[in-house]
Write a structure and sequence with these properties.
The complex is a heterodimer of chains A (172) and B (625). Chain A has 172 residues and is of the alpha+beta class. Chain A has one domain: Alpha-Beta Plaits, CATH 3.30.70. In chain A, the strands form four sheets. Chain A has a two-stranded antiparallel sheet with strand order 1-8. In chain A, strands 2-3 form a two-stranded antiparallel ribbon. Chain A has a two-stranded antiparallel sheet with strand order 4-5. The radius of gyration of chain A is 18 Å and the shape is globular. Chain A starts with a strand and ends with a helix. Chain B has 625 residues and is α+β, with helices and mostly antiparallel strands. Chain B has 24 helices and 16 strands. In chain B, helix 12 runs parallel beside helix 14. The longest helix of chain B has 21 residues. The two termini of chain B are 34 Å apart. The chains are: A alpha+beta (172), B alpha+beta (625). At the A-B interface, helix 1 and strand 2 of A face strand 9, helix 7, strand 14 and strand 15 of B. Strand 2 of chain A pairs antiparallel with strand 9 of chain B, so a sheet runs across the interface.
Chain lengths: 172, 625
Amino acid sequence: MPKQLRIFPEKCIGCKSCELACSLVNEGEMNPSRSRITMIAFVEGRYGLPYNIPLTCRQCADAPCLEACPVDAILRSRDTMKTIIIDYKTCINCGKCVDACPFGAMFYDGQDRRPLKCELCGGEPACVSICPSEAILFVQRRPFYAKPQALEREGFSILSKRNRQKFQESES
Amino acid sequence: MRKEYPKGGYHQRILRVDLSKRELSHESVPPDLLHHYIGGTGLGIRLLYDEVEPRIDPYSPENRLIFATGPLNGTLVPGAGTYSVVSRNALTRLAAAAQANGFFGARLKYAGYDAVIIQGRCDKPAYVHINDGAAAIEDASNLVGKDAFETDRLLRKRYGEDGIENGISVAAIGPAGENLVRFASIVSDRGHIIASGGLGAIMGSKNLKALVVHGNRGVPMDPQDRGTFLGCVRQWREEAQNTAMGQMVNTQGTIGMFTPYHSRGWVPVRNLTTNVFPGEEFFEADYIRKKVYRSQPRSCHGCTFHHCHMVEVMRGPYRGVVGEEVEYEILAGFGPNWGIYDPGAVTMLNDLNDRLGMDAKEATFVISMIMEGYERGLIRREDIDGIDLKWGNVEAAADLLRRISRRDGFGDVLADGVMRVAQKLGAEFPNMAVYVKKGNAPHIHDPRVRWGTLFNQVVSNMGSQEGIDMTARGSADLGIERPTTEPDEYLGEVEAKTASLRQFQECLMYCYFQSCSLKTAVKTLNCLTGADYAVEDALEVGRRVVNLLRMFNRREGMTKEDDCFSPRLGQPPIDGPGKGKSMAPTFEEVRNAYYRTMGWGDDGMPTRKTLEELDLGFTVSVLGD
């Protein structure tokens, strides 16, 4: 089994160090807008307390970005890591991969005008080593399949929409 | 100074916002100014000294409100989201410099500026939106009267997403700032407060409701240094986690200080009328964190501690209240100091006070003074709008906080801060008031036997703590081996040394709880900016800042008599661990030792020689003959 990032949102304290370490190691500057990982903080409105969710690429076994790329600029590495990488020499900056990723993990660097994705820092992820609360681990795990997961998420929202509708009908 | 300085850490750009003319302009910062003052409080006070005419009213449009960042802001250094606000002080009319943590400082850097200078006054409420090296003055009429958190939410919704923190920081004033409550605060990132100095009132006097900052510009640095810089950060983190303070804050937050402080008699109880608090077991960190709160961490920029949390109260009459986990000072101020025994109630009061946008230091000591007066029959119920202000009456305290923020009825009287209220009420009140002589309330401790805290608050030039309290510890960086356990000359000498260190830290801009060794801080700074500071140079920068603050105050007419404390702070505690001790008898010696170590004259002012040594020759004319 290849090693992958495993994220535990419940352990995240929300410091955003991962974003900075990622951009520092990969882009040579500390700039969250050029990071390949993002910590989203849900502050108010949904639940009483806020929640911190770090999100990044899961190196899907059935990667939609790879399939969507019209010029085959997105490849799976041949080593044991099976990382999905972008070949910037071939990339035409069409944005199809950004559209395709159901998890929003294909980031976009507005400064260099190119897509950005987690390539696991070549085997030593910077976010893992900087995380102060062990919310991001680099461990062996089963391959992740994007399509059933994406449909499952869509299923959740369809279901809750149906339930809300039924509730509203009974009210009126 | 090297030629290529600074190679990183700064944008070298300042934004100037003239609210009267509705004009925005950019200015560059000369490298030697950065080398002399680094950033944060240092840069802020230098800009203020140069720009503000002496003896103008703090509320005058000519006064400047300066938001300053330091070179480390926005980097991986733990707690590097801190920023400093520098202006004239609404309470003391002297200098004010206050810091808040969170993310604001980092995001001001990402927006492309090292500092923002605000001057003039808007004819109607406005806010300033700063993004990617550009700014605009926007209409804030729909935000008038909104509390600080609501303003934060609405502005984040306008520029980002509703209910989600999307790389946007807001520094806003609440109703208190709009109504010129003299101790109004600036609230940023939902719960990180620029508290000291009434800077919220200064912002209110300019009709400025908020600052919104976000951007995509990284911290400038040489990409080749990335490895070295990461190494520095790792070392910094490790050292910060291993200081005594770091270990405590990392595991228990600052509320962990309550029990040890109570055992030393440092907790303010009922306006310092006693030193013993019978409800201690309800204020233990373990009890609060495990039994009272359900919590979710919400840390500051790059922090590694389990410190800041959002909490829901699970016990007592305030079950269901959601707010920030209270810090030690608030816990003491809205708890024991008002005779309140319920940490849940303290959480509610803290949330309310933050939303209204007021400084908890003044709020707690002004209300506790009236509570004491009410209990002793010095003030009648009809004089205080019929509020039954007994010790421990939570709802009465909350009501009074709201009235103060609106300047409504008796709240209008209290809105001027402890010293002015005591003088206005007269009779026994000036002897009950807790303040230092420049005119502001001290940090929320019973500082009467916590010598370092009391003394450095007394000599502080800008209202907040200027040095570091060494009553219970030493400092390897400064060669201070033994703590200052007695109010003697040694205390004065030690406090003079700590002021340089603390003010150097406040130029760098990172969280005080993330303190590492001075050597590591200087190494990190040098790595990022390409400067060549030695440890001594760093302390000299700190010393320069303290001296410039003092010269600013001197120009405003401050004298040695202002370095003093109110009668209540000189009275020895009548019970508890500190019973019978007081700094009053030896105060003169301590103060003289402080002045001497600082290189100041007997009049408490820097000598010409000291100023010239520190490259502050431009201030010499203020000394007079």
